[in-house]
Structure formats: C-alpha cells, structure tokens
C-alpha cells in the first residue's frame, strides 16, 4: 500500500551500503488510517468476538506459515539488518514461530476468577483485551522482537498497529502478509513503516491508541512517556537500553566456559543487543588468565559477509551507528584504557559497516565506555578485589536490564543474583531465559511491563470487576 503522501525511503544493506528497496514512508495520515482500521476490527470485526480457542487456531496457522517461509524471511532479515544468515534462520525466525505458538496456546488456558466475597455476593474478576496497541520495534532483532510484541498482543484479543524500525521494515511487512494469508481478519495486524519522528510519534500521540509497547533506546522511550501524558494517558510499556555487567569471581572453576560466554554475550549480533554483557568485572587475581582466554576466543568470531554460512558476526546497522561505535573506541584510547583486542573498522572495501571484536582493559568505571551503551562489539574490563566491590561496580549504572555472575560458591551466586539490580541475572552462563520467563529491566532499562511469558500476555489486558449483590 502506498503512503498517503506518496513518499518512499531507501532500505540499505549494512553489509554493502547499497540500496535494497524503496519502502512506503508512513506518517501521521497513514497512522490515522491504520488506527481506524484497528479500531474498527477491534470493536466491530470478528476478532474481538472470537472464542479464545478460535483465535488460537488462527495464530497457530500464522505461525506455521511463518515457519514454512523460514528461508525467505531469514534472507530478508540478513539483507536488511546485516545479521549472519545462520542467526536469522537458526534463531530469529524459529523464535518468532515459537513465541506465536506459545502465546496462541495460552489464549484458551487463562481463567477468570471469583473473589471470596461471601454468601449472596458474587465478585467476578475478568481480563479483557486492552484494545488497539501500538508496537514500535527495534532494528537489532526485527523478527524476534515482532514475535515478542504481536504474539501476546494478538493472543490476548487486541488489534495492533506496528511500526518497524525504518532500517528493517521489509521483514515485518512480509510477516503481515503471511498473517493475512493465515486468515487473521483485516485490520487486526497493521504495519506502518516510517520514521520515529513522524510515524512513531503519531502512534504515541494518537488518542485512539490504548497502549504503546516500545523496544529501543532509553532516550526514545522517554518520548513515549511524554506522548502518553500529552494525549490520552495510554498505557506505555518500555524495554530500553542496557549496560549489563558480568562478574567473574576468583573461584570460578571453568574460565574457558566463562570466556566463551563473555564473548558470546558481547559479540553476538555484533554487540547490537540491549542485554549485551558489555562490562566485565573480574577479580584481580584471575584477570590476566581470563583475558588470555577471551583474546583467544575473540579470534574465533568470523566477521564477514552475513550471507556466508561461516560468518558469525555481521555488520553494524548503518554508517551513523558505525561512527558512534568507533567514537567510543577513540574515546577509550584517549581516556587511558588499554586496547587488548581489536579496535578497528574492518572490511571497508565491501562498502559495509563492520567493526572487529574489541576488548579494552583498565577501564575507569566513570569513563564514557563504562557508563554509556555502545551497542557494538566493545567489552570494557574493570578489575575488583572484594565481592562487595564487585556488586557496587555492577550496580553503578543507570541501567538494569541483565547481569551475570560466575562462581562455584552457591552462597555467593545466590546473594549476588539477589543483589544485582537487573531484570535477569544469569549464573555461570550467558542467557536471558526462554519464552516462559519474563524479560525486561530495572531503572532506565524498562518501564511498565515485560516481554515473554504469561506476564507479557496479561499486560495486554485490562482487569475488570463484575459485582453482583444477590442477597
């Protein structure tokens, strides 16, 4: 569908810098059309009147169609996001399928409640769909994040207006086409590609949008809180940035495994990951030994053409983001940190935007590298002497999305996991849980809700009390 203005914008391939396609540039007029369609579908269409089991069957059919198009969707995502094809086909698309199926299956398994009100009185507590939900997606995991939003939104009986990141619109448009093919009614799943300043703001300010779910930077998340205050006090659910710590105690008995997990946590997806463990806080007595292992494993990451199966790290999403990552590297040098691994732009001849795995040691906890989210493959290393110092350093951040602790002492692990102020804390591994566990952050990493699990499903509903006095 053409934009109301007739405008388009270019989608570029991060691995080559070349144009892939022209995409319709939606703005406030297009958001108006999409919201009107979503409102009509919610209030007058069949979607809101379907029994949960029937809604479940349609979403399961949608998931199966997505699964059948795994190869196609993986190529689209690789081309527009610069991600390795092995990640897109082996993780991102399967995660989208699994998320759709999990929430579909939950749709007819959530029960309303009766309150313990006593004889002659009946208090029913029911959950009803919240209405029209605006979902504003990031570019780092276009399909996975689409699933984390639209899975619970649709399964709970809502309709949605989705704004994909302008860098990665094509994959979202394609799954919307598959939703129609699966039989999802018209107006239930709407996509408005465009820019945050226009289409995103229009969703946030729209008086007929009941809720906005946003994943992206903390700075933009603040805008959506303001949009809500300036419009209809719509519910706002934010999953924002991070500066996640990984603590390695001297008693960690498998430094090889710790090094592997640390590299996975910071180099996976080129570090363009809100929960990346970008701060290594290591006990001084094992620092040198651990850094040797990290240096060895960083060389195993293959930076290359994302369409080649052997590539394990692709490109930065765009030239402006590449420049930001490189500026952090320059600043770290100037601040006196030691570059132990990498530190350079690579594959410049390809026209793409690549940075090699990079590790800085002797990082001042007050430096820019230690405090700001880089969103690139850059690890900041700081040593500590006591467990108390480690926890203080871990929590000395504006963010609180994730954290990790490596230790063989159960008491230390438990106390550290409780003390770290983050939405997810992993012990002796790098991980964010699975579909059954909520994902979101403390402090400036999140606001108002969680992705994944039954918590995500319930947050797209409203609680209603129905009171009957039969005495």
UniProtKB/TrEMBL annotation:
One of its GO terms (molecular function) is oxidoreductase activity, acting on the aldehyde or oxo group of donors, NAD or NADP as acceptor. CDD domains: ALDH_GABALDH-PuuC. The keyword Ribosomal protein does not apply. Keywords: Oxidoreductase. InterPro entries: Ald_DH/histidinol_DH, Ald_DH_C, Ald_DH_CS_CYS, Ald_DH_CS_GLU, Ald_DH_N, Aldehyde_DH_dom. Gene3D superfamilies: Aldehyde Dehydrogenase, Chain A, domain 1 (3.40.605.10), Aldehyde Dehydrogenase, Chain A, domain 2 (3.40.309.10). Residues 3-466 form the Aldehyde dehydrogenase domain. Belongs to the aldehyde dehydrogenase family. This is Aldehyde dehydrogenase domain-containing protein. It comes from marine metagenome.
């Amino acid at each position: 569908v053409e934009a109301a203005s007739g405008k388009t914008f270019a989608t570029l391939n991060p691995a080559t810098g070349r144009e892939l396609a022209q995409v319709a540039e939606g703005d406030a007029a297009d958001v108006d059309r999409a919201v009107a369609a979503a409102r009509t579908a919610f209030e007058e269409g069949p979607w809101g009147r379907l029994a949960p089991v029937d809604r479940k069957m349609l979403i399961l059919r949608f998931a199966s169609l997505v699964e059948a198009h795994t190869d196609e969707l993986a190529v689209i995502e690789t081309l527009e996001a610069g991600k390795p094809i092995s990640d897109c086909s082996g993780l991102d698309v399967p995660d989208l399928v699994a998320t759709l199926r999990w929430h579909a299956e939950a749709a007819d398994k959530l029960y309303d409640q009766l309150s313990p009100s006593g004889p002659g009185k009946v208090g029913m507590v029911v959950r009803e769909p919240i209405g029209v939900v605006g979902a504003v997606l990031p570019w780092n995991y276009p399909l996975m994040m689409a699933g984390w939003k639209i899975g619970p939104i649709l399964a709970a009986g809502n309709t949605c207006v989705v704004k994909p990141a302008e860098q990665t619109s094509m994959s979202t448009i394609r799954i919307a086409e598959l939703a129609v093919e699966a039989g999802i009614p018209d107006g239930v799943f709407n996509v408005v590609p465009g820019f945050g300043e226009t289409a995103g703001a229009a969703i946030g300010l729209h008086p007929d949008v009941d809720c906005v779910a946003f994943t992206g930077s903390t700075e933009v998340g603040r805008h959506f809180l303001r949009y809500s205050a300036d419009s209809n006090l719509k519910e706002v659910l934010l999953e924002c940035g991070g500066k996640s710590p990984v603590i390695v105690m001297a008693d960690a008995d498998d430094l090889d495994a710790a090094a592997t997990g640390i590299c996975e946590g910071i180099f996976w997806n080129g570090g363009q990951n809100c929960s990346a463990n970008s701060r290594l806080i290591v006990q001084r007595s094992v620092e040198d030994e651990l850094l040797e292992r990290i240096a060895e494993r960083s060389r195993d990451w293959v930076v290359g053409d994302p369409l080649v199966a052997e590539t394990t790290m692709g490109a930065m999403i765009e030239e402006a983001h590449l420049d930001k990552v490189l500026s952090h590297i320059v600043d770290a040098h100037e601040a006196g940190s030691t570059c132990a691994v990498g530190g350079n732009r690579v594959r410049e001849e390809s026209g793409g935007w690549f940075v090699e795995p990079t590790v800085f040691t002797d990082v001042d906890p007050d430096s820019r590298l230690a405090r700001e989210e880089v969103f690139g493959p850059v690890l900041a290393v700081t040593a500590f002497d006591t467990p108390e110092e480690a926890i203080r350093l871990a929590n000395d951040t504006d963010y609180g999305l994730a954290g990790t602790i490596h230790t063989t002492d159960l008491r230390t692990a438990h106390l550290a996991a409780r003390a770290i102020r983050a939405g997810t804390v992993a012990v002796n591994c790098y991980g964010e849980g699975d579909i059954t566990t909520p994902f979101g952050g403390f402090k400036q990493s999140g606001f108002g809700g969680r992705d994944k699990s039954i918590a995500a499903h319930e947050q797209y509903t409203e609680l209603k009390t129905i009171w009957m006095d039969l005495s």
